[in-house]
Specification:
The protein has 410 residues and is mainly α. It has 13 helices and 11 strands. It is found in: Membrane.
Length: 410
Amino acid sequence: MSITGNYDHYHRSGSTGSGGPDRPERCACCVRTMKWFPVLFIVSVIGWSYYAFVVQLSFFTVTSVVQRILFLLFYHLILIMFLWSYYQTVFTDIGRVPSRFRVPRSELDRLLRATSEEEQKQILEAFAKELPIVTRTLNASVRFCEKCRLIKPDRAHHCSVCGVCVLKLDHHCPWVNNCINFTNYKYFILFLGYALLYCLYIAFTTVMYMELIWSVSGREGKVDGRFHILFLFFVSLMFAISLVSLFGYHCYLVLLNRTTLESFRTPIFRYGGPDKNGFSLGKLNNFQEVFGDDRKLWFVPVYTSVGDGVSYPVRCFDEDAESLLSGEMASGHHLHHPSRQHRNGHRVGGRHNDYDGEVHHHQYRNGSAVHSSKRDPLVHRVSDNDEDDDEDEESVFETTVFSHSANLLH
């Protein structure tokens, strides 16, 4: 990490260029409008599917009144939950980093005047002393966003599409025109689940009538609507196949308490080094961290997630257990042996290595401390090939966006 020489980036308001101030504003407005096209596409497909299922299938094809009522009843129940989850995912505000993480102008000036990366690391370390952060960059420095000029909380990343740092960023999804993050991750999982259920329900109910709608002896209007029902079956089947993999992958991430970004880049902890499972507290606790403690609301798209999005309980490393298992340090590295307990009012993990410094706690909403660690010095060597954090995240965004597009258009 080096910000030396970026004085203009921090202290100039920015030039409008030769095109004048109106041209960038018009371009930005066009870009914002185009971002809604994928959402409009999804809404259009849902609207067409409603017409094909309710009108063409239920009223013009199904002859049994009882079967028609059951079809429409279950269809509308699933549709309501599907649209409710999608609305929450699209229109829930992203989790923004609190102001206390923003580096003041005086500290920015000191960073710019620093003559070495080591001095910059010490300045950021001193400022972040009171902040509840346990993760570091590749070169063991505090995670600092040059664009937003703030210390990144644990699991927060800069979204290159939204232009801000977002709490527990999973990825930016163009199909909802929003970041999937701490505030709407539960809604996103439910959206995928109900979308899959919606597609499977349509596919299974329409397949029973595929032979009937192509028969010559049919009611008037059936032949005109048979193409709607035929396309409805194949479109729902294709979307279902795509959603199975996407929904299954995110269920897997929920059970491991891992984001898409963290599956691409392993979080680096100041006390234990890189650990993909550093935030994992056990499958049930991981599930409850996203869906909450009230089982009646697990599958309802209302906010029940645990925590504040800034600090998270983490696995601890029991030094005594390591000594019993390994007897000694192997090749200069500790063997990771996390010791965990249930998070409801108890510490999660064992005792940390004895570092000098101030103790801080992560807490859940009930006020019970679930993690305690001590301040430690920098524990990793400075890497000569340390890459810029935001640039790597943008490449993950591109990979994730491509993956979503490929899945939905499979």
